[in-house]
Design brief:
Helices cover 22% and strands 30% of the residues. By secondary structure, it is of the alpha+beta class. It has two domains: 4-343, Regulator of chromosome condensation 1/beta-lactamase-inhibitor protein II (Methylamine Dehydrogenase, Chain H); 352-517, Potassium Channel Kv1.1, Chain A (2-Layer Sandwich), CATH 3.30.710. The strands form seven sheets. Strands 4-3-2-1-25 form a five-stranded antiparallel sheet. A four-stranded antiparallel sheet has the order 5-6-7-8, with no helix packed on it. It has a four-stranded antiparallel sheet with strand order 9-10-11-12, with no helix packed on it. Strand 14 and strand 15 (198-202) form a beta hairpin. Helix 7 (429-441) runs antiparallel to helix 8 (445-458), helix 7 runs parallel beside helix 9 (464-473) and helix 9 (464-473) runs antiparallel to helix 10 (477-489). The two termini are 58 Å apart. The model has no long low-confidence stretch (mean pLDDT 89). The structure holds 2-acetamido-2-deoxy-beta-D-glucopyranose (5 copies). One 2-acetamido-2-deoxy-beta-D-glucopyranose binds next to loops.
Length: 523
């Protein structure tokens, strides 16, 4: 399962829906998107950026049928917003904002549904996509870069400032190079080639091209200051740039108003400047064209962030408690976005918790069975000993592989054993009373709490007295108080139930005196 809990938009989805999420992307100030094997989208539908054929926003996931059956390899988004997506087959689809032709279909009409780009890309397999605010860049499997969209600063690399309505290959000094990685800042573009050189073009007002100047570049230029340094990856923030070298070092340049260069001050830098993170090698850099935030992950798994952090400026790399750079953009960037398409690992690996859950009541691996009400429940001695004090002693010298139980009913005992494997219970409030009894007996305090929770959530006029009696019997004071309050608030109906008529004498006396003390019988 993909852990998307840190992005607020996903609180609109049910647990069951979240279980299905395999890939996700969150973008825009309020608009958002999530993607499953079947694609679902939700959020603000500005410019049709949800691709549904209308501009209706939604707080419930809606199915994006027009891409059904397609597997997504990568995806990027602009500020309009517009979306550029490549499938695992290398096809490119675009939709959303199109005022600058950033959808690459020759028009400037907003794209309400995904448009399959074929012009100039029909025989190409696209393996990477990147969006600036209003332009688009793709990388093909043979190392060619194509660009289209907004051109005001030369960001499509065409040598002119005319908007580029369809994909055009970026040539000039990239003509004979093999590009291996691309990125876009707000209005600039970058490409890393297989020799480790970095080529840049577009807007340069804050020095984000790293050329030592602030003049825009209409065609690709090599970052000469990186002479002798082999770059592997490039990442662009709104107006700053990060690169990662083949030796695990990071260089940054461009705008620095929020400390996003990690240099310890806020001076913009138009030349590559080393970022000192820690002795450990950096293996991943992260930035997003909608944010002034930077992040990096070390080989040891430490995640650092610097730059804009929830409105504050962090001018030096700061060690976070995260294990992924994605979390930096979920928690610190404003708004919370994803800097890349999130994907679950494509293997069927189970976590420890998932594996244990699967083994509960599995006769093939069990070494102990309980016989309750004539039915077997299969368990593992070692797990029971690890999870429950009672079993630690009772199973100590136990050589048997069968234990008969008569103190508790089958559903109650089964729920107890299952709890030891899963940490959770699913029972009716009446059954939870039985489990509460068991939990008290075995001194399982956490289980006791879970039972009380289930009971509170299942209380009604019909069962209120029974639940109250149970609370008294098992000395669950908090629960007793809760049931008592419920009875008082529903006194007329509760006193007419069969539960009330059959109430134990002492309990009734107690109930009446307590009820009169709180003034339940006035007028
Ligand atoms: C381009 O996309 C727009 C918006 O979806 C659409 O109206 C138009 O027909 C498309 N143009 C082409 C040439 O497909
Ligand atoms: C792309 O398409 C246009 C128009 O059809 C054409 O002029 C151009 O040469 C094509 N090729 C590239 C690589 O841009
Ligand atoms: C640095 O860049 C920012 C834009 O992000 C700009 O507002 C600021 O004026 C620049 N600072 C200097 C000293 O040029
Ligand atoms: C800011 O830091 C950079 C990199 O360490 C340094 O070159 C520059 O002189 C500093 N600027 C100021 C104003 O301290
Ligand atoms: C900002 C800018 O220079 N826009 C130009 C982009 O190209 C179109 C022509 O396609 C011009 O009309 C715009 O002025």
């Amino acid at each position: 399962m993909l852990d998307v809990g840190k992005w607020p938009i996903f609180s609109l989805c049910s647990e069951a829906e979240l279980q299905l999420v395999r890939q996700a992307c969150v973008f825009g100030s309020a608009s958002n998107e999530l993607l499953y094997t079947t694609i679902f989208v939700l959020g603000t539908n500005c410019c049709g950026c949800l691709g549904l054929g209308d501009v209706q926003s939604t707080i419930e996931p809606r199915r994006l049928d027009s891409l059904s059956g397609k597997k997504i390899a990568c995806l990027s988004y602009g500020s309009g917003p517009h979306i550029v997506l490549a499938t695992t087959e290398g096809e490119v689809f675009t939709w959303g904002h199109n005022a600058y032709s950033q959808l690459g279909n020759g028009t400037t009409n907003a794209g309400l549904v995904p448009y399959h780009i074929s012009t100039n890309l029909s025989n190409k397999q696209v393996i990477e996509v990147a969006c600036g605010s209003y332009h688009s860049l793709v990388l093909t499997s043979d190392g060619e870069v194509f660009a289209w969209g907004y051109n005001n600063s030369g960001q499509v690399g065409s040598g002119s400032t005319a908007n580029q309505p369809i994909p055009r290959r970026v040539t000039g000094c990239l003509q004979s190079k093999v590009v291996v990685n691309i990125a876009c800042g707000q209005m600039c573009s970058m490409a890393v080639v297989n020799t480790g050189e970095v080529f840049v073009w577009g807007y340069n007002g804050n020095g984000q091209l790293g050329l030592g100047s602030s003049g825009n570049q209409p065609t690709p230029c090599r970052v000469a200051a990186l002479q002798g340094i082999r770059v592997q990856r490039v990442a662009c923030g709104y107006a700053h740039t990060l690169v990662l070298t083949d030796e695990g070092q990071v260089y940054a340049w461009g705008a620095n108003s929020y400390g996003q260069l990690g240099t310890g001050n806020k001076s913009n830098q138009s030349y590559p400047t080393p970022v000192v993170v820690e002795k450990d090698r950096i293996i991943e850099i992260a930035a997003c064209h909608s944010a002034h935030t930077s992040a990096a992950k070390t080989q040891g798994g430490h995640v650092y962030m610097w730059g804009q952090c929830r409105g504050q400026s962090v001018t030096l790399p700061h060690l976070t408690h995260f294990s992924s750079t994605d979390d930096v953009f979920a928690c610190f960037a404003t708004p919370a976005v994803t800097w890349r398409l999130l994907s679950v690992e494509p293997d069927d690996h189970l976590t420890v918790a998932e594996s244990l859950k699967r083994e509960f009541d599995n006769p093939n691996t069990a070494d102990l069975k309980f016989l309750v009400d004539g039915k077997y429940i299969y368990v593992h001695k070692v797990l029971l000993k690890i999870r429950c004090e009672h079993f630690r002693s009772s199973l100590e010298d136990n050589e048997d592989d069968i234990v008969e139980m008569s103190e508790f009913s089958y559903p109650v005992y089964r729920a107890f054993l299952e709890y030891l494997y899963t940490d959770s219970i699913s029972l009716s409030p009446e059954e939870a009373v039985g489990l509460l009894d068991l939990a008290t007996f075995y001194r399982e305090n956490r289980l006791k709490k879970l039972c009380q929770q289930t009971i509170k959530q299942g209380i009604c006029e019909e069962n209120a007295i029974a639940l109250l009696s149970a609370a008294v019997k098992y000395e669950a004071q908090d629960l007793e108080e809760f049931c008592f309050r419920f009875c008082i608030n529903h006194l007329t109906v509760v006193t007419q139930t069969s539960g009330f008529a059959e109430m134990d004498h002492d309990l009734l006396k107690n109930f009446i005196s307590k009820a009169s003390r709180v003034g339940a019988f006035k007028n």
